[in-house]
User: Fold this.
Amino acid sequence: MSLPIPYRRTLSVSYAMRWALSRSPRYYDFSELGGDCTNFVSQCLYAGGGVMNFTPDTGWYYLGLNNRAPAWTGARFLQEFLTTNRGPGPVALEMPLEELWLGDVIFLTRDEVAYHSLLVTGFEGRMPLVSTHSADVLNVPLTNYPVAVARGFHILHFQF
Assistant:
């Protein structure tokens, strides 16, 4: 049985503010292997929850470059994990962008497939400001991304 534990949004956002424009030495930089955005967002989520899911193939964990779950570094896999997770780790619900909170996640999608991950680190009115890696940004308006679909996911809690 999984028990819910609070998601500490301020710790997640603080981590993002510290590492958005650089790299934590604790994690591999995936910039040359397809992008580092989801790795960065996963690091931020972990900073706010502290629980990984070590389920092979479908979990959410990072132990090193060659020992990690697809959901740790792949946008489409993280989006699926957040909304289907029934074990340890973060749990999320899709929400309109205007209803997101600090520390929530936004996925940019093409043909309904997530290809880029961003963390909500501020607001301009109700429009999210985001931080991410790959093209490293800190607190930029979501409107800076010329995309057809941005999907918001509210982190409900972590499970242990």
